Amino acid sequence: MRALRWHGRGDLRLDEVPEPPAPGPGEAVVAVSYTGICGTDLHEYTSGPNLIRTTPHPLTGATPPITLGHEFSGRVAALGSPVPGIEVGTRVAVDPCLRCGTCRWCRHGEYHICAKGGSVGLASPGAFAPLVTVPVAGLVPVPDGVTDELAALAEPLAVGLHAVRRAGVQPGDTALLLGAGPIGIAVLMALKLAGAAGIHVSEPVPDRAKRAAELGATEVYDPAVTDVRREVFLRTGRIGPDVVVEATGRPELVELAVSTVRRGGRVVLAGISGGAASLPLKQIVPFERTVLGSLGYNFDIPRVLDLIATARLDPAPLLTGVYPLAQGLDAFRELGSGAHLKILLNPEER
Ligand SMILES: [Zn+2]
Ligand SMILES: [Zn+2]
């Protein structure tokens, strides 16, 4: 089968690879329908390795070249262990978190921060291929009425839902969202669902700013021309937002986030970055502000699918392109140009 594999920075190749073996205990093989290209995948391509390990992964032993792709839907092709409610042929979305199952965090339901954890498509061969091996624990049946395309968007939406759950947003809260890329838009959708009354968005790219406004942002600011901190302060009655979500991973925005949130408010950092931020402690301690990290999701993908199935969440605006896997490299380059939010690759079209 053909798979889109990461060989190194700037080096993605459509390779001929063997099909995965029959699944072992605790594993399943999924026949892939659609797989989204994540910002993480793009960053591995343009500036990696970031999350990909060049030495054997502690849980899987995998080393590059590695097939990317961790946001996907498909049908169960083979099961290595029985799973209640799931059989061969069941339509599924997949929680791609790999977990050891025995560490302190796995035992407390925090499998997404497993001491040895990783993701399918970064720490094991991923879903930019017709077949992919996944942990059975990650199989999530897709409700009738949710298409395979939309089911493939459940993973990035779960990132937004998780970040907003971490933020503890209450109905009527005000929020500032930094960045309206794919994760930012997922956060925006989750803020609306949580009942946020005011959703302020800072986004310099005009297309993204326009989309955020269309999707229900109260105000959208261009940080190149607006003092976002001051504007939001004034528009929240000189209080500041209850919550700030940083969805870009740019370390230089952390200080803006902390200095903008109201006294006693919460800052959630949802962008992944290897950079360092400097934080004046006088902006945290005397104001009792809380700064939290948010990584991926745990148990959020089934919630997202239920929200889509009950028409409370429409993920369609996230989707801006669908390409056959054979054009995957072009799709990566197009995503890098910034015009898209989410591109899906379909391995069945050749
Ligand atoms: Zn992702
Ligand atoms: Zn673990």
From TrEMBL:
Its cofactor is Zn(2+). Its EC number is 1.1.1.-, 1.1.1.303, 1.1.1.4. Keywords: Metal-binding, Oxidoreductase, Zinc. Pfam families: ADH_N (PF08240), ADH_zinc_N (PF00107). Residues 8-345 form the Enoyl reductase (ER) domain. Residues 1-24 are annotated as: Disordered. GO terms for molecular function: (R,R)-butanediol dehydrogenase activity; diacetyl reductase ((R)-acetoin forming) (NAD+) activity. It is an enzyme of class 1 (oxidoreductase). Belongs to the zinc-containing alcohol dehydrogenase family. This is (R,R)-butanediol dehydrogenase/meso-butanediol dehydrogenase/diacetyl reductase.
